[in-house]
Specification:
By secondary structure, this protein is mainly β. It has a single domain, classed as Immunoglobulins (Immunoglobulin-like, Sandwich), CATH 2.60.40.10. Pfam families: V-set (PF07686).
Length: 121
């Protein structure tokens, strides 16, 4: 039986991400979606997903951005994906064809980006 335990919440300067379900369980070869909801005062949001198994450090899976684009590590490209939806303020992680090695803690992280302008006085 596959099981992913999710990190509950992370906050940064008024912006935050929330992973509503603490655990997901599914059988091998199934598809599971891990939810990640965010609130941010920024319109340019970056969401990052990480996987941590055992006592190893978290491993970067992928990133997705408000204005399209992002990056997925090669080892995860075939079965893991996420799309940031600015309307629902969510970026769920979809894991297809579950394997026993998918059992881990999955972290959703937020990095708001604020555009700054400079003026010469």
């Amino acid at each position: 039986m596959w099981m992913a335990t999710l990190w509950a919440e992370c906050r940064t300067q008024g912006d935050n991400v929330l992973q509503p379900k603490a655990e997901e369980m599914a059988a091998e070869d199934q598809t599971v979606t891990l939810d990640c909801q965010y609130t941010s005062t920024s319109t340019n949001v970056y969401i990052f997903w990480y996987k941590q198994d055992g006592t190893s450090r978290p491993k970067f899976i992928l990133s997705c951005f408000s204005f399209g684009g992002g990056k997925t590590e090669n080892e995860f490209m075939e079965r893991l994906s996420s799309t940031l939806n600015s309307t629902t303020k969510s970026a769920p992680l979809k894991i297809q064809k579950l394997q026993l090695s998918d059992s881990a803690v999955y972290y959703c992280a937020l990095r708001p980006t604020v555009a700054r302008t400079s003026r010469t006085v």
